[in-house]
Design a protein that fits this description.
Butyryl-Coa Dehydrogenase, subunit A, domain 1, Butyryl-CoA Dehydrogenase, subunit A, domain 2, 14% strand
């Protein structure tokens, strides 16, 4: 494939960078540390139709090509502008494929405008990587479903307006069947949210409990008992982003810049480790470009490259943060660390979860082997 940008793509890249120049606050700090910045960014992106950039214009997007979306994601992630939205990334595309006309009219405009923030209610204490083992029940009672059960590791549940819920509607069916998908307001009576604070002190995740939560049947998405198939498509949307590539590249560049400014020279061993990471970052970047190129041709999220990119990105992030600890020495390994090295200490601790969240590395390898390479199970 040709990795050179077309004149149109290069012009779009410049336009996005100019937008970020105008959006970012002055002072040189990390904009992600500003509590209100994510909301400001979301509003400004929505004004341009960039929050839901690849969506059709009728739903509030720009109908952007996969390559434009890739360039946009790359810039936003590299320059640390919060632009990711679960509603845009997989809830909306799933609704376009499986939702009713009424559901599309109700939910899609408010996702594209940034008015509604969504969380994903998939994982459970006994169903993480083996997601089809989920046990949260949805029992039909007249025009409603009654939800009982528990979800865990729900990112952003405490600040979400809506939840994208997978629940079991037929307990007697094989585990990949008998699952249905629902849209439900997170302030529905019977929902309680409990924070899960990780070892970096951050509140990203939550436990969510459902106690006789009533959801109108009109908010079920797709056919009853066939939600697994829509869920699997949504996971492919989740894993086809290039954002992790840019984040790794920026982290490595920042580390090298910091090390160059220190009086003590970097050891030969650490130079080799840094060089190895730099090569791997470029490999991951080209994987992201390959995904975008394939989507340009087929308009389908390519399962094998998407799974490969997710696996490679999560493990590379752990490699880079480990090298940062080796290169920065004992100062960076203290917690809390000195302000100058705190970002890498935080990153090292946070990276532990990378090979678990969104599907463990073991599960990714199984999916690559079976769905991607056609290898037998067992």
């Amino acid at each position: 494939m040709d990795f050179r940008l077309s004149p149109e793509h290069a012009a779009f890249q410049r336009e996005v960078n100019q937008f970020v120049d105008e959006l970012l606050p002055t002072g040189g700090g990390d904009a992600r540390d500003e509590p209100e910045f994510a909301a400001v960014a979301r509003r400004e992106l929505a004004k341009r139709g960039w929050l839901a950039l690849p969506w059709p214009e009728e739903y509030g997007g720009k109908g952007a090509s996969p390559m434009q979306q890739m360039l946009f994601n790359e810039i936003m992630s590299y320059r640390r502008v919060p632009s990711f939205s679960m509603g845009v990334a997989w809830v909306g595309p799933s609704l376009m494929l499986y939702g009713t006309d009424e559901q599309k009219a109700r939910f899609l405009p408010r996702i594209a405008s940034g008015e509604d923030v969504w969380c994903t209610l998939y994982s459970e204490p006994g169903a993480g990587s083996d997601l089809a083992a989920l046990q949260t029940r949805a029992v039909r009672e007249g025009d409603d479903y009654v939800i009982n059960g528990q979800k865990i590791w729900t990112s952003g549940a405490h600040r979400s307006d809506w939840g994208w819920l997978a629940a079991r509607t037929d307990p007697d069916a094989p585990k990949h069947r008998g699952i249905s998908l629902f849209c439900l307001p997170m302030d529905t009576p019977g929902i309680s949210i409990r924070p899960l604070v990780n070892m970096t002190g951050d509140h990203e995740f939550n436990e969510v409990f459902f106690d006789n939560v009533r959801v109108p049947a009109a908010q079920r998405v797709g056919e009853e008992h066939r939600g697994w198939y829509a869920l699997a498509v949504a996971l492919d949307f989740e894993r086809s982003s290039i954002g992790a590539t840019s984040a790794a590249r920026r982290m490595l560049e920042d580390l090298v810049t910091y090390l160059k400014a220190q009086p003590a020279p970097v050891s030969d061993a650490n130079r080799m480790r840094l060089a190895d990471c730099a090569v791997a970052v470029q490999v991951l970047r080209f994987m992201g470009y390959r995904i975008a190129a394939e989507q340009e041709k087929t308009r389908i999220a390519p399962t094998l490259p998407a799974q490969m990119a997710k696996l490679f990105a999560s493990e590379l992030n752990q490699r880079i943060t480990t090298v940062s600890m080796q290169a920065l020495g004992l100062d960076a390994q203290a917690h809390p660390a000195a302000a100058a090295t705190e970002r890498w200490t935080h990153g090292f601790l946070r990276a532990v979860a990378n090979t678990i969240e969104g599907g463990t590395s073991e599960i990714q390898r199984n999916v690559i082997a079976t769905r991607g390479l056609g290898m037998p199970r067992g």
